[in-house]
Amino acid sequence: MSEDKFDAIVVGGGIAGTVAAYLLAKEGLEVILVERGNYAGSKNMTGGRIYSHSLEKIMPDFAREAPVERRITREKISLMTDESNVTLDFYSSKLGVQGSDSYSILRGVFDQWLAEKAEEAGVQIIPGIRVDDLIIREGKVCGVVAGEDELEANITILADGVNSLLAQKLGFRGELAAHHVAVGAKEIIELPPQVIEDRFNCNGNEGTAWLFAGYPSDGRVGGGFLYTNKSSISLGVVTTLSDVIKGNKTVPQMLEDFKHHPAVQPLIKDGKMIEYSGHLVPEAGLAMIPKIVGNGVLVVGDAAGFCINLGYMVRGMDFAVASAECAAKAVLKAKEAQDFSEGYLHCYQGLLEQSFVMQDLKRYKDFPHFLEETPRIFNEYPKMADDLLTDMFVVKGEPAQPLRKTLMQHVSKIGVLNIAKDGWKGVRSL
Ligand SMILES: Cc1cc2nc3c(=O)[nH]c(=O)nc-3n(C[C@H](O)[C@H](O)[C@H](O)COP(=O)(O)OP(=O)(O)OC[C@H]3O[C@@H](n4cnc5c(N)ncnc54)[C@H](O)[C@@H]3O)c2cc1C
Fold this sequence. Notes:
- This protein is of the alpha/beta class.
- The protein has helices spanning 15-26, 53-58, 62-65, 107-121, 165-169, 193-200, 241-244, 251-259, 265-268, 317-337, 342-345, 347-354, 356-363, 367-373, 380-393, 403-414, 416-429; strands at 5-11, 31-35, 49-51, 71-80, 85-91, 102-104, 124-127, 131-137, 140-146, 149-158, 181-190, 206-214, 222-228, 232-240, 272-282, 293-294, 297-299, 308-309, 314-315.
- It contains 17 helices and 19 strands.
- Strands 1, 2, 7, 8, 9, 10, 16 and 17 form an eight-stranded mixed sheet that branches. A seven-stranded mixed sheet has the order 5-4-12-13-14-11-15.
- Flavin-adenine dinucleotide binds at residues 11-17, 34-37, 43-50, 130-131, 159-161, 184, 186, 236, 238, 279, 281, 301-303, 307, 314-318, 320.
């Protein structure tokens, strides 16, 4: 191999790119990873919590060593209006069982740790350089143009995130559709660990994941999220881009109002904002997956649209890890066969089909459309829950009416048939 030709070039040092690079270097391949941020994690954002299963397969027991924040053992889901919050609170130690556990993380530190692992395995990481273009000869991707440099490799892995301009340049996808992506804004709010444990009823290193529908996204498709870290809270909102423009509130304003909601404000009281970030989330699932295999090139992670948001859980990072693993396996096979053609690399698609990545994306393929078609979830249902519970719990000293009548009064505002239809469509899409 010539000095300036690598086995693999990975574009993007997020979770997908770093895991792909790590796995290839571990098998002895010469791998270079180019990241436009000044260090791994500097440009990356998540809610967030990582479901451990896919990384656990690659790095058993990683959570003992990695800078994870808290093991999530409490799940909360809320329907929120401007003055109320109705919450389902699920605590179970089963949520923390190794292999099916999940952890709140902060990408700034987590991605750096992952990058160190990749470097230890032999990956050459070049931070602070953006890949501007791909070198294409006779229909084959032969490398990248990064700043002044041209780097060549047998395979280029695009792990450049949701807005993969390189996949777009290759013609693998068009412009992102506004109803396929959501805009997220997040604050990290510092608080002493003991305060977090008291406010969220957490034991030691255990933590809470909390998703909200309704008020946080101004009644639009999306919601709010809150994750407890060791000594901070990740608090944010996410709203589908096509829906943001229908309303009057900007996403930063939604976050500001969410922070000041009477049910949220006491949770972050006296906290200090230490980081603010914004990012797109690929949310259309199967409908937005671009072409992911070409001659000398594979696409992984968010760049391939591998992410799902089910309202009660968001999963992108475990998909990023698993797709990186499938890509690495495909590259190792291709290297053995010395065939980096699209036809041969198509085994990547096969590996994804066998894994949960494609199977889950297929299972939930109708869910994004269901959310889009059912705006009631984000406005009328939170209002109904608020009105119903207000009537149940507020005592005015007037003669009480039967609960059945109160229930029907509120249900009839939306309509029994509409509720049944929404329920049926929702269940079918899951
Ligand atoms: C608000 C929000 C909440 C979320 N919550 C969760 C959650 O709770 N759980 C979960 O599992 N997932 C969540 N996700 C999704 C998850 O964060 C993503 O799926 C995951 O980060 C994807 O990783 P990635 O490596 O594919 O992409 P990224 O982390 O976006 O990495 C892409 C990298 O490529 C680099 N790059 C881009 N272009 C170039 C270029 N031309 N040259 C060099 N480098 C380049 C970028 O700087 C970046 O480092 C959330 C996302 C958002 C935005």
